[in-house]
Structures are given as C-alpha cells and as structure tokens.
Amino acid sequence: MAESDAALKKFQSDVRQWMQENVPADPGFLLPLSFLEVGTEQQLDFLRAWQHKVWQAGYLGMHWPSEFGGQGADPAYQAIVDRELQRVNAPILFNTIGLNWVGPLLLDIGSQESQAKYVKGILSGDEIWCQGFSEPDHGSDLGSVQTRAVRDGDEYVINGSKIWTTLGNFADHMILLARTNTETARKYDGLSFFLAPMKIAGVDAHPIRKVTGEYGFNQVFFTDARIPAATLMREEGQGWGVAMKTLEYERGVSAGQASAHWMVSIQIDDMVDQLRGYQRDGEALLNDPIVRDDTVKLIMEAKASALSRSRMRISPLTSDYPMGLALSTKYRWTEYARRMKLFTAAMQGGHSALYVGDEDAYQGGFWQRAYFSNFGATIGGGTTEVQANIIAEHVLGLPK
C-alpha cells in the first residue's frame, strides 16, 4: 500500500532534523568522493562509524526485512533518506558492494542461512564486502575467468588473481567468480559463485595507486587459499547466472539496494554554480556564447537522463526496447558525468592544471579530482566499451 503524502512529509521533516544534529563536521582529512576511493584506515574508521550511526537510527536498508536489520518499510522512505543525505552532502555510506549488490542478491536468491549470517553485518558496517569478478588478463570478459576453485573434501582450494577489487584490502568477504570445471562445452558452464572469506591464509590484497594519488582498487592474489565448501552459492556450474543477477543490481537494472548514497553528489546545478564564479579577461565566463552553448548541452543531457529514469517506470513508453533504458543507464551516466566534470575543470583556464594540495587551485582542486576519480566508475560494473556491446547485442539485437 502506497504511503500517504502526509506520512512521507512528516518523515522527511524528522530525517532533516536528525541530519542537522548528526551529520559529522569536516574531519580535517580528505574523505573519498565514492566508495571506490576508500584508501586509508583513517577514512575507513570514520566511514564505518558514520554508516553504523545511520543504520542505528533506522535510516539504512529501510525496506529490507526487520529480522535482518532493516525496517520492512516502503522503499519511498529510503528514497527520502538518500535525497536528504545528498542534499546536505553527508559522508558516503561506504560498504557499497555489500549494501547494493550482495545484500539484494542474498535477499533475492540466497539461502536462509546466508541471509541470517551476512545481511545484518552488511547494514551495520561490521563486515565489509568486495567483488572478485574481473581478472588481469581478461578484464570485463567474465566468461573467460581463469581463477580456479578445486573441491577438496569440505573445502575449495582457490588459485588465481582478481583485479580492480574495491575495498579488497579491508574486506571480510568477497563475492568470488571462479572456474570449477575446465571441460565444459560452454565456458560459462564451468563457473561457480562463492561467498568467500578474505582474512585467511593464501589471500593477499595489493592496493593499486590511482592517477589521483589515492587508493581503493586492489589486485588480489589467491595461493592455495582454502574456503569452506558451504560458501558455494547455488550449485557448481551455476555461477554465471548468479553473477549476471549480481550485475543487475550493480548496473541499476534491478531494484533492492540499501541506499543510493555511495558517492558525493555532483549535479548539473553544481557545475552551473561553479561556472558563474569564473571569469575570462575580466568578463563573466558565461557571457561567452560558445561556453553558454556547451553549458546548455550538458544541462539538456542531465535533464534527458532524469526524464529517462522516470520513463523507465512507465511500461508503454518503453515497449519498443523494454530493457533499453535500464541497460544503458550505467553507460550514459558515467560518460556524461566524466564529460561534465572535465568541462567544469577545463573552464578554469590555466588553473585547470592545478590539483588538490595547491593553494591556488579553484575549490581546492575539487573538480580535477572528481574528473580523474570518475574513470573508476567507467570501469566498475563493466567498462564503457562492454556496456556499449551489451546495448548493441541485448537491446538492438546486433550480432556479436
């Protein structure tokens, strides 16, 4: 039953009051722009405490079942919380892989044992999750995964390597896609999906330094690592289907995520406000007709994306390509965000070459950092090129 407008407005007022009293002040050190940049213990401790506080207040995973730490509430309540978190630019809810991919997956197709074991710890931030899909030699081609999982009694022995593993050096668990059979006719049929422990012998995570100077990604090496056979999700050889279901949550095709507040919100209005402060040769930059034209194009693209999100929920408006908008959301959004941030930084003229830490950098080098950080989003969940192939094959019906 849909919630009444009066109830939602009262809830929004309560949330705003809570935010006013509880959103932490600037901690005095650089906070990550998204969960992809959590690189230090200092950042982790701060963000873990913040997520736990939001969850204890009842404002995280509100629509998840109460027996697993949620509220069993209408999703509209969580949407209000997320908007308010973004409005006040609150710190991110960092355990994104758990909150937005693993949690929904377990609640959808997980066993009762796995739900009871893992879901509450995901919400509280007590247990951190990472994702082991991509590999150094195969990138986003998940069908070619080579990391091996060999059954040995009540355990599987894991050997191989995973790349771009966000939070891998901090994680307690990994959703791991590994090959259990090398003899199948179809390469996809030899893959299995595990809820693998990370803090065990034979698992080593090596942080990767990004162009921003920050960390967050890792390469993870498995050397005769032994994980319980009970961590296998579904049956051997069914990992491809579970992985594809996981990617539906990661790419926003399926709903059920605990929160949308996994990154600092940078909207088109922020860009326009920033451009209003720029000058060129003593004149307001936005007086330049070419700059205005380019600005309006980005505004139109932002508006089109917003309307597309609304259109996705109206079946008659998507009957020509029913999954087209959903499958293209990640591709369109990450590429638009990258171009928008680059444009804003480039309009600083000579100052665009300055970065975080330079006292003359505009807004502390925020837009430059945001632009470079955005490349992580064009990799995670499948690269831009992979997303384009998905749209071509599964929406437009083009050949491989």
Structural account:
By secondary structure, the chain is an alpha+beta fold. It folds into three domains: 5-127, Orthogonal Bundle (Butyryl-Coa Dehydrogenase, subunit A, domain 1); 130-250, Beta Barrel (Butyryl-CoA Dehydrogenase, subunit A, domain 2); 268-395, Up-down Bundle (Butyryl-CoA Dehydrogenase, subunit A, domain 3), CATH 1.20.140. It is built from eleven helices and ten strands. The protein has helices spanning 5-22, 41-56, 75-87, 96-109, 112-124, 239-250, 268-276, 289-311, 324-346, 366-379, 384-395; strands at residues 129-132, 148-152, 155-162, 173-179, 191-197, 203-207, 218-228, 232-233, 279-280, 283-284. It has a four-stranded mixed β-sheet. It has a four-stranded antiparallel β-sheet with strand order 2-3-7-6, with no helix packed on it. A two-stranded antiparallel ribbon has the order 9-10. It is globular and about 75 Å long.
Mean pLDDT: 93
Q: What is the approximate shape?
A: globular
Strand content: 5-15%
> Span between N and C termini?
44 Å
CATH topology of the largest domain: Butyryl-CoA Dehydrogenase, subunit A, domain 3
Q: Looking across the biggest beta sheet, what order are the strands in?
A: 1-4-5-8
Q: How helix-rich are the residues, as a percent range?
A: 40-55%
Structural class: alpha+beta
In CATH, what is the class of the largest domain? Answer: Mainly Alpha
Write the element-wise H/E pattern from the N-terminal end onward. HHHHHEEEEEEEEHHEEHHHH
